[in-house]
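Hi team,

Filling in the usual template for the complex we talked about on Friday. All components are listed, including any nucleic acid strands or ligand strings, so the model treats them as one assembly.

SUBMITTER: L.P.
PURPOSE: interface mapping
COMPONENTS: two
RESIDUES: 224
SEQUENCES:
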Amino acid sequence: DAGVTQSPTHLIKTRGQQVTLRCSPKSGHDTVSWYQQALGQGPQFIFQYYEEEERQRGNFPDRFSGHQFPNYSSELNVNALLLGDSALYLCASSPRLVLTYEQYFGPGTRLTVT
Amino acid sequence: GIQVEQSPPDLILQEGANSTLRCNFSDSVNNLQWFHQNPWGQLINLFYIPSGTKQNGRLSATTVATERYSLLYISSSQTTDSGVYFCAVYTGQGNTPLVFGKGTRLSVIA
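RESULT (copied from the run log):
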């Protein structure tokens, strides 16, 4: 049973550039959530996708956008990168239409903005 | 929004010792998860525990939702238990976002 996968593992970008991160959910899951984890902090919710639409959004600017594909995989896009966007980006998947909706996390993408 | 507070922030243990990590939350929650984040950043699911007590090997967890806290017990700690332990809560009905605490950093020394 494949777990949540993310790519790339690490990424270095320059301020002002754009970046795309990718996530494949755990088998049987249809909901994908993205979180940002700054150094020394707990993860913070960015947004959640199911049925290919953004359903919930945290307190993040419009520079953060996403997409979900028919196979439930998802992308996180960040435009006009700032130094403060340097963080570990975590993807979580869960099943939506079941009684228990435990979230499972991928290994993360570590983004460094210089 | 809901506040999730974890204590202690840091903990150093000798191998073989026991510990209790605490998670307090400021409002009612529908569910709660405990995670262990390893040194590579991977969040590993420990418990999905809306109430009551669960055990998994040397780890156990108790959530008392009516009193707004959860406890994670680690017995006979091992060096591989080192890392950061996070408590995260679901605030709404259904598949809502997780709200995390700041974590407890555990170091187990041989």
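MY TAKE: The CA atoms of residues 61 and 72 of chain B lie 4 Å apart. Chain B has one domain: 4-109.

Thanks, L.
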